[in-house]
Description:
Residues 153-256 form the CdaR GGDEF-like domain. The structure is a single chain. Helix content is 49%, strand content 15%. It contains 14 helices and ten strands. It has helices at 4-8, 11-15, 64-76, 96-105, 118-148, 153-162, 183-190, 213-224, 243-260, 283-303, 308-317, 322-329, 333-347, 354-369; strands spanning 19-22, 33-36, 50-54, 81-86, 109-113, 171-178, 196-200, 203-209, 229-237, 265-267. The strands form two sheets. Strands 1-5-4-3-2 form a five-stranded mixed sheet. A five-stranded mixed sheet has the order 7-8-6-9-10, sandwiched between helices. The radius of gyration is 29 Å and the shape is elongated.
Amino acid sequence: MATVEDIMNLDFFKHNHLELVAGKQGLYRIVTRPNIAQLMNFSDWMGGGEFLLINGVGLGLDQKENMLQVIENANKANAACIAFEISQTFIPKIPQEAIDLANQYQLPIFTLSWDVPFGPILNTVYDFIVREERKESTIMDIMRNILFANVNPGQILQQTDYYGYDLRSPHQCMVFQKEGGYDALKKRFCEDKRILYLEQNEHLIVFYPYCEKKQLKNQLRSLLATEDVYIGIGDVCTNLMKYQNSYYQALRALRYLMVTKEKQILFYDELGLLTLLDDVDNDHNIKQYIMDFLAPLQEYQTHHSIDLIETLNVYQECNFNVAKASQKLFIHRNTLLQRLEKIAVLLDVDLNNFNARREIMNVMNLRKYYG
Length: 371
């Protein structure tokens, strides 16, 4: 994706003295195409993301009210930015009120000299967008090859080096899942030129430069503040051959999150005992073990209106604390004690025994993992 900041840093615009006068906070905006505004109602035919060129001919932009209306219309049409060509006749200056409004909308406003022709500007912006799209397509192909094919590490590293990505340094593979698409997330990742991302099978896969777990969680929480998203994170990749494994680990962590909805970020190594299941190709046997263990409780609640399985689950989630569990279940302490006595009899276990408690916790965690 081509951002406003990418384009303003092109040599062409540096040589022609493109100057940012407002909207610095919006430099992350994605530019989809260049365009020229020749009518005041230009917002009616814009598709969003335009690098908008305006020389002011016929628009009366020497009048403050008209200049403010242009900025209102550009914001309404979701323009990426506006570049005004300054001239004594048509746009002598950008008034402070217009600068304030653009800052409010975080809409980048630039000025250019009147003598810079529109043609080279349009060509420069368009050519850069096309190159960025080709680059993005190539990077996606590279990521697919790393994750799903037998790769030649030397060739892959040459390609990523060429595009400015350092996969020789440690990364972590993340898998994101959310409803409503990933455009906003991709725009945010676009700001960090170290991050590679790929949308695949309704997920967003991200190669994220390694940092310590606490720091990484803090960075990701800024995303979670505005996005209803779940993130599974695999082990650190110190070479290209580890990305596939890290990706599948991230998927497994995400799978657990989507079942339990206990949190929004989960590292694979936080699955604990459940990581051992990756080496066991016998899902049926594990599910049968869960069913057999809970069968006496299931049989009892089939004939009674008491959910003993959920009672046991809440009890172990509350660290086998009767007061906390009864409060969470909205039942009296004595009622919970009666249920626990029934559970102990049906399962033939001592609920105060450490080994029995450990097995109950394991069963309940496996039950969550296998849905």
